[in-house]
Amino acid sequence: MKKAFLSGINGQDGSYLAELLLEKGYEVHGMIRKSSVFNTQRIEHLINYDYKKNDGAKRFFIHYGDLIDGASLTRLLRRIAPDEVYNLGAQSHVKVSFDIPLYTGDVVALGTVRILDAIMDIGSKIKFYQASSSEIFGEQSFSYQNEQTPLAPASPYACAKAFSYWMTIIYRKSYNLFACNGILFNHESPRRHETFVTRKITRAIARILKGEQDILYLGNLDAKRDWGYAKEYVYAIWLALQQDQPDDYVIATGENYSVRDFLDESFSLVGLDWKKYVQIDPRLYRPNEVSSLCGDAKKAREKLNWKPKCSFRQLVRLMLESDLNLEGLNLKDFEN
Ligand code: NAP
Ligand code: GDD
């Protein structure tokens, strides 16, 4: 039975990937950091469900640790001895990274090296996945970004991700480590944190319909992103580590839409005009915005045999449906 170790297990991707790995029969070990508030909401169903091995022993484990605490990482990896390590943990908010650049660099950039070094200490047979990001491309003149596109990070978060992207490649080349980068474009789901724009919008619509919110404050409506469905993207993450050779892959839908498009699509599903609710708050603008990102995932299609199925419209719908349900509402009751 394979063992996997995940940092960031309580994040959007960590929770979906843990489900996938458990379905595939893995023993799953997730790391959570100590927080003053409860931070296991996305994996409660996994903790409470009794995943068992054939011998009746447990298959799902949670450990305290932190990407800024290298000793905890080495200790955990030594004790667990995983076959695969997925580094998903991060201070993942681009705008927040301008407010806390040092912390972001510590977690996102140095945290990756701490895991890579722990793997080197323990044994280089472990396969390693690094959650890289389309943000490393920054502002580009190319309409589509792929594995050959030069990096031009535009935020502390992106810069830290670019550092860990290169360190993953450097450790692969220098120490023959099975280390892969997944360069994932934006991916969303009902488990997306509410501070990201898609979920902020779908959550706000549900609250507006419930009479709990009148105004939705947003920043730049013109930014375009390539939005896919997180559940499909974690399958690509897993596939990257099942190949014979380590490599780096762009994971994307190949279509992009603006924040304005997302507003049009989501509000119109419930028969509302977003212009009556949305107000621009200049504080939500980024000091340095990336105006447009759109991925070319040809390599993942050809080498991993991966392609996304969920369309932009389906994604908006499934997120909205879920947020309405959370408010005790039903999307069908609002559709024309
Ligand atoms: P997410 O929901 O923000 O989850 C990140 C997780 O990292 C959270 O569970 C968080 O813990 C944990 N974390 C934060 N600081 C940590 C630290 N110091 N030590 C250990 N864990 C820490 O992010 P996601 O959307 O699932 O994304 C997963 C990874 O892919 C991230 O690295 C992100 O940067 C990257 N990525 C995401 C996207 C996307 O569109 N979703 C695209 C490209 C790349 P708490 O729960 O305690 O806060
Ligand atoms: N968060 C947020 N809140 N974004 C807003 C808002 C707002 O009120 N108004 C407009 N936006 C715009 C942002 O300026 C950005 O251009 C776009 O909406 C998307 O913002 P986010 O949803 O915060 O995502 P992101 O693209 O910055 O970053 C996400 O995707 C990256 C991959 O490209 C995160 O998941 C990163 O961790 C990930 O690497």
Would you kindly provide a written description of the structure presented here, covering whatever features stand out?
The chain is of the alpha/beta class and 336 residues long. It has helices at 12-23, 44-48, 70-80, 94-99, 101-122, 156-175, 197-209, 230-241, 259-269, 298-304, 312-326, and strands at 3-7, 27-32, 60-64, 84-87, 127-133, 178-184, 187-188, 216-218, 224-225, 228-229, 248-251, 257-258, 278-280. β1 (3-7), α1 and β2 form a beta-alpha-beta unit. α3 packs parallel to α5, α5 runs parallel beside α6 (156-175) and α9 (259-269) crosses α11. The mean pLDDT is 96. The protein binds NADP nicotinamide-adenine-dinucleotide phosphate and guanosine-5'-diphosphate-alpha-D-mannose (GDD). The site of guanosine-5'-diphosphate-alpha-D-mannose (GDD) has 21 residues, from α7. Guanosine-5'-diphosphate-alpha-D-mannose is lined by residues 92, 94, 133-135, 185-186, 195-197, 200, 218-220, 223, 225, 259, 284, 286, 289, 293.
